Amino acid sequence: MFYPLSAFIAYRYAKSNKATQTSFVSFINRFSVAGIALGLMALIIVVSVMNGLEGQLKQRILGIVPHIEITMTPIISENPSRTSNENEVTETPTQTAEKTQAVTLIEISETPIEGVVATMAYREAEAVVQSRSDLRGVQVHGVQPEVMIEHTLVANHMEQGRFSDLTEGSFAAIIGRSLAIKLEARVGDRLRVMVAGASVYTPFGRMPSQRLVTVVGVFDMGSQMDDKVMYMNLKDVNRLMRDPKGSEQSLRLFLDDAFNYQAVVSALTDRVGVSVNNMKTWRERQGPLFDAVKMEKNMMTLMLLLIIAVAAFNIVSALVMVVTEKQGDIAVLQTQGMLPSSVMWIFVLNGLFNGIKGAGIGLVLGVVITLQLNNILDLIGSPLALAADGRGLPIEMDVVQIAGIALLSLLLCVLASVYPARKAMKIAPSQALQNE
Question: Which terminus of the chain faces fewer neighbouring Cβ atoms within 10 Å, N or C?
Fold first, then answer.
């Protein structure tokens, strides 16, 4: 049974000075508190920085890559009335397929789905871009400028030009800063875009579809995709692909949280009936990169938690020596009527109080140092410009995550106190007093 007396004795011993303890026991006790504080402080700093880096990758890369792309869907074949109506009209199979797919994409775009903030007709093609000085392979993204301006981060990271310059029929293009440097291209220059997926037969043989485009803008997301993507008007890309009606264009979905793509895919599958095989998510392109970042963060967290665990289990050594040293005092308490379970709670709470001291110090130091980390790096002459604005390390503190780490540290301290507490509970008063 738990008595307040156990907490009172444990608290008095936890705050006692060297005069009431042997110097070695006091050293181990303070060493365990310091170890918990340093481990928790390091864990808060590392996790906050890793969260910031993951957020930067999410912003820079997933701001360019489509969150979800729907290429085609078999919904229409499941609707008997529509199928019968289409059979009554004499159309070629190609015209019927084009009409079916267009209607389907419109139905999907008009269906409200939780997590989807916008939809856009979209087309992507592999192409080769040639300038006067170099030749590069790129992904040509056919987009609707008004949707891109409202729902993408790329529109907010334009160094020159704007998406509204991608007017239909102008064959204008927006490229990344890295690609512009490699091609030595500037706004106003003309580039030749060649698409192998749409070829034409000429007297000289089969030739890829090609067109001269004018650079009207340059964006800089600071990601690895900056030299691989070129934006053009959707209608112009359809003409470049020799498909002016856009029968093979797809539907691009913008999500409020790209990491929540699984819920959207499930909703599209269950509510709308879109086949999973006809959907492409950002995981197919950039999944390994984010998996590597997540694994690195988890490994760093595990490593620092082991440091906290080592410090916490130093409490075992300190409390075992205290139990051996205080056998007579424990026996006196038992002869005065204290139950063995109350004796056990004294040592469990003693370990908990040490954990609270270490976790409290580590929590305060971790939060303060994390908030001032960039200033500290500047002070020691080692600044790191990894944020999107180039002003230092990206830092993202998660209150729930930090609270969970602190509670886990306290739990480790309590678990470390169980063995010496049970050992103290099993002390026989008669034998202990006889030895005294």
Answer: N
As beta bridge partners, residue 254 has 118
3-state secondary structure (DSSP) of residue 75: coil
Write the single-letter amino acid at 143. Answer: V
Residue 202 confidence (pLDDT)? 67
Quote the crossing angle between the two packed helices 283-325 and 327-335, to the nearest 10°.
80
pLDDT given for residue 236 in this prediction: 93
Nearest to 14 by CA among 35, 2, 30, 1: 30
- Lookup: tokens for 399: 């209150």
The DSSP output letter for 160 is E
- Nearest-5° angle of CA 244, CA 144, CA 162? 125
Instruction: Dump strand ranges (E) for 167-234.
Output: 172-176, 190-202, 205-219, 229-233
Distance (Å, whole) CA 99 – CA 148: 26
From residue 87, give the alpha-carbon distance in Å to each of 90, 213, 216: 7, 42, 46
For the cut 80, the answer to whether the pLDDT of residue 145 exceeds it is yes
pLDDT for residue 229: 93
Looking at residue 162, the DSSP 8-state letter turns out to be: -
State which H helix or E strand residue 221 sits in: none
Q: Name all contacts of 274-277 with Cβ < 8 Å and 24+ positions apart.
A: 274/70, 274/73, 274/75, 274/108, 275/73, 275/74
pTM: 0.71
* pLDDT, tens digit, 9 for 90 and up, residues 95-116: 444 444 444 677 777 778 888 9
Q: Which of 11, 6, 12 is nearest to 339 (CA)?
A: 6
Question: What's the helix, strand, coil split of the chain in %, to 5?
Answer: 60, 20, 25
For residues 393 and 373, what is the distance between their CA atoms, to the nearest angstrom? 8
Q: Which residues contact 324 (CB under 8 A, 6 or more apart)?
A: none
